[in-house]
Each structure stands twice: as structure tokens, then as C-alpha cells.
Write a structure and sequence with these properties.
- The protein contains 13 helices and 36 strands.
- The chain is an alpha+beta fold.
- Among the domains are: about 270 residues, Beta-galactosidase, Chain A, domain 5 (Distorted Sandwich), CATH 2.70.98; about 110 residues, Immunoglobulin-like.
- Strands 6, 7, 8, 9, 11, 12, 14, 15, 19 and 20 form a ten-stranded antiparallel beta sheet that branches. It has an eight-stranded parallel β-barrel with strand order 21-22-23-26-27-28-29-30, surrounded by five helices.
- A hairpin with a 7-residue loop joins β31 and β32.
- Bound molecules: alpha-D-galactopyranose.
- Alpha-D-galactopyranose binds next to loops.
């Protein structure tokens, strides 16, 4: 509701979730002023808000008339003038969307600032729409989705940095003076090196379950720029939007430029509360099929890499079916009728089967899957091509390339991105998926990969004066293509992968069911990667696979129990050659898969409580998922360091009902004797004040002992 009890005067706009409010002064003819973001105000407090003092800062600062501070928008008008002076024109409400329209005092130039709320979510989405009626194009040189002033204080920033194979590393630091920027310039993938989400802890060092916390997630699949300017004023100025670098946009008269959604959340339950707000909102409103349990799958990549053969595919399907899995995904290597996909050098773009490898084609595989009682999935990388491909030979003009210099290629030395801003390329990408799903309707799952960045800034489709539209048009083209795919194929499961975790962003999730968190499947390192990712994404989005040992990325040897216990904290899958497993290992996996089916609803739909962070280096990491009704919970505990006689913390749980009693059952047990508390019942109050003392080693025969230990406990209320 807006313009509610806060004030009788119509100029005040309040945007409310059940627990939070953004309050603006939208007096017509004056700049839109930001007054408040915090817990939902009572009418009495709202009535005296202005008297309390507050930011009264421009809610969408524009460049030109004032020039000394960071701005959200900057333009060059049709006549070359570079100033904007935006005042409120009107406020509209349409269901849960509030739109404040700002108009320039001189030019026919307008910005709509939109805010959307959801009755069941603690997230406020904000985005802008820019338009004008000037005689010719206006050049947009800066176009943030939103701005938020945060009172100067002991404010800490939580953000994610990373690299391929080491994505989503949590970093927490106090905000100090100067400009902190978090950015992406890859062009296609945007979450390997940094993430477009942050949290701000307003009460000093971030705490998991207490402290005022603001979360912000820019929901965009392309280049982004987040800025926090801590200047001479009493505020930290936060801006988030598309990265405008090399992306100035020429907006034609009458055209509307819509910026991506910036999702904001406020919690007084620390970073944990902000995460849960994002997870609930994302599952309800921003990802595909988040009400469906995810299938347990085997992916072929680390098992056979490019060496796809019908016999092995059949054997892998038989194995995963035998282990209790529900889906088999054939990864890279299956296609290339002329140029063969035997390595990363060729045939992206030619999405027909290599019959040398698969004489009975995909139909043979879907038939085999059906016979095994499992579903079938397939890998594609539809946004890219290789110079060694029929597609490139026929349509060299469809790639992102700049003809006057020597072209730079990506993976395999021949790979190059298609120019997805071009509608003809959008048709091709659509038809890749359309052809597969029409010809083989039994395909249940697509792993949609994107292993290239944009190099060679150049589009044969864009006019020479609009080359700077390349990045933005690419992502509009991607969105359009995915819209078409989803309109025709609403049910197919689609994973977003981009050289591992390059597409863990809310920008793509409306079309995708999950993302591949990282190409690094090392269970120990995954604890850190998944922990960081969990700040913004729920477990159901995080594909997490048991892989072989020694691990292919780190060469670390980790026992199956630990690998399983880590993978089960996300969307469980396997990614190895099952025929290389011993029968004892297979039994262990079979049991784990059966037990995961029991805990799956809690992990995938539950609320996350992070208990001990691996980043705190206490030697253990631990988290818990509680079902929404708090009748069930799954507790994960992993020892992350092994030092003799180290004092490990006793982990206190969270998220349970203090007044209920929970019976404890260990999942994936390998110990000879059950734990002392196996089958015993404890009150939620006890578990959340004292917790259980976990043995730090496993009670297994001497030959089976390793340096690793981990526990998964199912807690069921009686
Ligand atoms: C990327 C993905 C991997 C795998 C390979 C196939 O690297 O992240 O999971 O699919 O491509 O080439």
C-alpha cells in the first residue's frame, strides 16, 4: 500500500512489505527525495519522520545541475546539452507496483522510477524506465537501476569475489571513505570474478542472526557496476545498474529504456535474515519451477569428458538408475556431424548428433533412459560457435567480431560468441532448443552452457554509430530468446552454466531452474563456494555433484562420505564414472540417494540457518535447513581443518521451534556404532542453546580412517 497512514499529505509515498518500508517525498514539481528505508514504520512514527531528520537526498541523482557527487543517470540530449534536472510529475499505483514519474524541467525527457512489492516477500524491487520526446536520439551515458543512501556509521560490506573454480568467495569489510566498486565486464557471464549482490550490515561487523542488514541484488545477466561512495556527507551512497562503460546507449524518441531490477531487502536478523528473504522471494517469484523438487542426476562430464559413446551412455544410465537417481545428463561431446566435437576446438553451432559416437542418435538414448525409468538431459552451448563449424562457414556475419583487427578466439582456440543482439541469431539460438525438443520430446533437462566472454567488440548487425549497444543488446537478445523458449517449453528443466559458476545471477533465473555453482567439484573447496553463494541463492538453485577422487580440479583425495555430505547440502547430483566405483561405494551412494529423497523437501524448500562459517576458520563449518513449518530440519556439519587436539566449537543450532521436541537421526552414517544421541529427542530450546557434541572422528575400522569427518542429522519433531 502506498500513501497510507504515513501522512495526510499526498506527497509522501511509502512502499511497504510486511516488515519494511521505503519512504519517499514525491511532491510534484520538486526532486524526488529519499526519506527512509528500514523496518515498517507505525503510522505514529511515520507522521513525525520528517521531524526526526533524515537523508532528504535525491532518490535518483542526475548529472548536470549538480556535479560533485556520484549520480544514477547522465545523458547527452539531442542538442548536445549534458544536464538533467528531474522533478516529480506524478505518482501511479498499479497493484503492487508504484511508479513515480520524473520529468526534466526543460527537456521532454522522463524517468519512471518503479517499485514492486510482493505480499509474501520481504523484497522491494526497483527499476527505472527512461524515455524522451526530443527531436532525435538522446545518448544515455549512465543509467543505474537504483540508488540507496545508507547513513554513515559502522557499516560493513559483504560481497563475493572469485575466479573460475573458486567462485563466490565471501569478503566482509568495513566501508571506508572513497569509492568501492564491484563490476563485471565479461559481456556474457557475470559471476566468476564478482557477484552483483551485496549486503550492508549497519551495526558493525556482520552477524548471522542479528543486526540491521540491507541486501541488494542487481538482477541482470550482463555487465554490471555496483558503486558505494562513502564521501564527505553523512551517507554511504549505493548505486547499482548495468555497467555503462563502453555501453553508451542512443535512445530514440519514443523508445523506452528499461533498466534491470534491483532487489532490496531489509532484515534485523543479520545476514542470515537477509539471505532467507532473498531465498523466499527468489523461490516464489524469480526462478523457474522453484515449487518442484529437483531430480537427482548423473552428469557425464567428469566421468567421460568428450569421450561420449553409446555404450558408456547406456552404462551410465543403467548405473544411475540402479543407484536410485532420476535423470541422466549427457554433457559436451555428443554433436558435430562434420567437424567432430572430440575436444573444445570444433563444432559448437552444429547441434546434430555425431553418429560415429551415437549410432542410434538421441532417440536411442531417450529410449534407453525410459527403459531404465529415468529421464534424459543434454548439454548445449547455444550462444557460441567455433570457426570449425558449419554454422560459422555459412554465417560468419553472425559472430561478434571486428574485421579490421586480427580476431581473438576463446576456448579451444576457435570459439567465438554469436551476436545475440541480431534477431536472426536469436532465431538460430531459439531453433537449436526448439529442434531438439521437438524432435526429442523426451528430453527433460537442458544444461545451457556459455563458455565465452565477448572479445573483438564488433557487430555486423549494429550500425557503426550504435556499436556501443553491443553488450546491452546481447542481453536483451538473450532475454527475448529465453522468453520464446519458455513460452513454448514451460516445463523443461534448464540449468544455467557458464564455465562453471559464471551465471549465478538473479538476472537469468526467471528462465532457469538452477545453476552450476562451479566447475570445481572438490568437496572441501565447495563448502566455501556454496557458503558464499548461499548469501543470495537458495539450495534448490545450487547444483552440487559428488565427483571422483582424487578430485580433478584440486587433486585432493576426499572420502565418499564427505563428498556426499557436501553435495547433499545443495541440489544433489553425481558427476563421475560410476563403473569405476567399488560395490561398497555404490552401496554408500545408493543409500545416500535414498536418504536425500527423504530430506530433499527440507533442503530444497526450507529456510537456511548458517551456523559456523568456514571463513571463520574454526575448523568446522555447519548449517541447517528448517522446513517452513519447523517440523523437520537437516543439520550439516563438516570438519574443514584437521589438527590434532584442536578445540573445535560445539555447534548451537538455530531455526527450530524452541517448544517442540526433535528426534535425531544420522543420515549417511558410516560409523560402526550409532552416535550417543541417535534416536534420542531434544527440545528445540536445548538444541538452540547448547547443541549436540559431535565426535570429530568417525568410528570406522583403522584402514578406513581418513583426515575427514562430517555429519548430517535429520531432526524430526514428534
Ligand atoms: C564448461 C562447464 C562444464 C562442462 C564443460 C563442457 O566448462 O562448466 O561443466 O559442461 O563446459 O565442455
Amino acid at each position: 500500500m502506498i500513501m497510507s497512514a504515513i501522512s495526510a499529505s499526498a506527497e509522501i509515498v511509502d512502499i511497504n512489505t510486511q516488515a519494511s518500508s521505503i519512504i519517499l517525498d514525491a511532491t510534484p514539481g520538486r526532486p524526488l527525495q529519499f526519506l527512509y528505508y528500514g523496518p515498517k514504520l507505525s503510522p505514529a512514527d511515520a507522521a513525525v519522520l520528517k521531524a526526526a531528520g533524515g537523508p532528504r537526498l535525491n532518490a535518483y541523482p542526475a548529472y548536470g545541475m549538480t556535479t560533485v557527487s556520484e549520480t544514477a543517470i547522465a545523458v547527452r540530449h539531442a542538442d548536445g546539452n549534458m544536464t538533467l534536472d528531474l522533478n516529480v510529475e506524478s505518482v501511479k499505483r498499479d497493484g503492487h507496483v508504484t511508479t513515480v514519474t520524473l520529468k526534466d524541467t526543460h527537456y521532454p525527457f522522463a524517468v519512471d522510477i518503479n517499485y514492486r512489492t510482493w505480499p509474501d516477500s520481504e523484497v522491494i524491487e526497483t527499476w527505472t524506465e527512461i524515455s524522451h520526446d526530443e527531436p532525435s536520439a538522446v545518448t544515455l551515458t549512465q543509467f543505474a537501476s537504483g540508488y540507496l543512501p545508507v547513513r554513515f556509521g559502522d557499516v560493513w560490506l559483504s560481497s563475493l569475489w572469485g575466479n573460475w573454480g573458486n567462485e563466490a568467495q565471501l569478503e566482509q569489510e568495513p566501508l571506508t571513505h572513497g569509492l568501492k566498486s564491484i563490476k563485471n565486464k565479461d559481456g556474457i557471464r557475470n559471476s566468476h570474478y564478482a557477484h552483483s549482490e551485496i549486503m550492508l550490515s549497519l551495526d558493525g561487523k556482520p552477524r548471522e542472526e542479528s543486526g540491521r542488514t540491507i541486501g541488494a541484488a542487481l538482477c541482470y545477466s550482463g555487465n554490471y557496476l555496483l558503486r558505494i561512495d562513502t564521501d564527505h556527507s553523512s551517507y554511504h551512497h549505493f548505486f547499482a545498474g548495468i555497467n555503462d562503460e563502453n555501453s553508451e546507449y542512443h535512445l530514440a524518441p519514443g523508445e523506452r529504456f528499461e533498466t534491470p531490477v534491483l532487489a532490496l531487502t531489509y532484515s534485523e536478523e543479520g545476514t542470515g535474515g537477509a539471505s532467507r528473504n532473498f531465498h523466499r522471494w527468489g523461490r516464489a517469484h524469480r526462478m523457474a519451477h522453484a515449487d518442484r523438487e529437483r531430480k537427482i542426476l548423473l552428469n557425464s562430464w567428469e566421468g567421460v569428458y568428450f569421450d561420449i559413446k553409446e555404450k558408456e551412455m547406456a552404462q551410465m544410465m543403467a548405473d544411475i538408475a540402479d543407484l536410485g537417481g532420476e535423470l541422466f545428463v549427457m554433457d559436451d561431446g555428443w554433436f558435430g556431424p562434420v567437424y567432430h566435437r572430440d575436444d573444445a576446438k570444433a563444432s559448437l553451432g552444429d547441434w546434430t548428433v555425431d553418429t560415429r559416437k551415437l549410432p542410434h542418435g538421441i532417440k536411442g538414448l531417450t529410449d534407453a533412459a525410459r527403459k531404465r525409468g529415468i529421464r534424459f538431459g543434454i548439454w548445449i552451448e547455444p550462444e557460441m560457435t567455433d570457426t570449425m563449424s558449419l554454422l560459422y562457414r555459412e554465417h560468419p556475419e553472425y559472430v561478434i567480431e571486428e574485421k579490421s583487427h586480427k580476431t581473438r578466439y576463446g576456448r579451444g582456440g576457435n570459439q567465438i560468441a554469436l551476436d545475440l543482439g541480431n534477431p536472426a541469431v536469436q532465431d538460430i539460438v531459439f531453433s537449436i532448443v526448439d529442434t531438439l525438443l521437438t524432435k526429442y520430446p523426451e528430453i527433460d533437462y537442458i544444461k545451457w552452457d556459455a563458455n565465452a566472454c565477448i572479445k573483438n567488440h564488433g557487430s555486423a548487425y549494429l550500425t557503426s554509430d550504435n556499436q556501443s549497444h553491443l553488450y546491452i543488446d546481447y542481453h536483451r537478445g538473450l532475454a527475448r530468446t529465453l522468453d520464446r523458449i519458455r513460452a513454448k517449453y514451460p516445463d523443461v528443466t534448464i540449468q544455467a552454466c557458464a564455465g562453471g559458476g559464471g551465471r549465478a545471477n538473479w538476472g537469468v533465473m526467471p528462465w532457469f531452474d538452477e545453476f552450476w555453482v562451479s566447475d570445481n567439484t572438490d568437496a572441501l573447496q565447495r563448502i566455501f563456494i556454496q557458503w558464499g553463494t548461499s548469501y543470495f541463492y537458495p539450495a534448490i538453485a545450487m547444483a552440487s555433484h559428488i565427483s571422483a577422487t582424487p578430485n580433478h580440479q584440486t587433486l585432493r583425495t576426499i572420502p565418499l562420505k564427505f563428498r556426499t555430505d557436501v553435495a547433499m547440502s545443495g541440489r544433489l547430483g553425481m558427476e563421475m564414472q560410476p563403473k569405476d566405483m567399488t560395490s561398497a561405494e555404490k552401496d554408500q551412494c545408493r543409500k545416500a540417494i535414498a536418504e536425500y529423497k527423504e530430506i530433499r523437501p527440507v533442503v530444497q524448500f526450507g529456510d537456511l540457518y548458517r551456523l559456523v562459517s568456514p571463513y571463520d576458520r574454526k575448523g568446522v563449518a555447519s548449517l541447517l535447513y528448517a522446513s517452513p513449518g519447523k517440523d523437520k530440519a537437516v543439520f550439516f556439519w563438516w570438519r574443514t581443518e584437521n589438527f590434532r587436539n584442536k578445540q573445535y566449537p560445539r555447534v548451537v543450532m538455530n531455526g527450530l521451534d524452541p517448544d517442540r521436541t526433535y528426534r535425531v537421526r544420522e543420515i549417511n552414517r558410516i560409523d560402526r556404532k550409532p552416535l550417543a544421541f541417535e534416536g534420542k529427542s531434544f527440545s528445540g530450546r536445548f538444541l538452540m542453546s547448547t547443541g549436540l557434541e559431535l565426535p570429530v572422528t568417525h568410528d570406522v575400522p583403522a584402514d578406513d580412517r581418513t583426515e575427514y569427518s562430517s555429519r548430517v542429522l535429520l531432526l524430526e519433531s514428534e
